Amino acid sequence: MNRLLTPLVYLKVRHPVKIWYSVIYPIMFSAPLSALLVFAPIEYTVVGDNGLVETFNALLALLIGFFIAALAAVASFDRAGMDAAMLGDGATLSLPDRSEPLVLTRRMYLCLLFGYLTLATLATYIVFAIANVMLASVSPPAVGLSAGTYALARGGFIFVYCFLIGHILSHSLLGVYYLAWRTVIFEKKVLGNE
Prior knowledge:
Layout: E1 13-14, H1 18-38, H2 52-76, E2 92-93, E3 102-103, H3 106-135, H4 147-190
């Protein structure tokens, strides 16, 4: 079981701005989107056919393949700079067998990031696909909920789902930024590194 959850090691990575990508940006994404969805003046389906979960899960299914491909590319990317320490405040990882935190190289960080994104996206997809099937036919009277309690549960469900989507998207964009800009263009053009 330990090996299956190894990608969660990314949660132990420390960096001064990591909280922005893990919590703040996802809240900035999910709070207004959830409010818009909860208080929307139009009728729409959250779960079931053509609902919110089904629509976003289609995106998640595509992202899983992208993250696996990105992980393979990063792991085998033949460039000396990939095995150098990250510039500025580098990311670190505390390991039980080391007294000092491990300073991550670009390759290490990106492998941890894309491994984590693969697992997080796969887990989100599976959990909400099951929720989509199970909740598709649920209505407030069927489960004995008042209209207010049902609305609160629906709003909470939407917020949690949007938060997880925002969490995955913010880390995805961080990974793309790092691969597309920091690792190649920034260092070559700005710093003059080859």
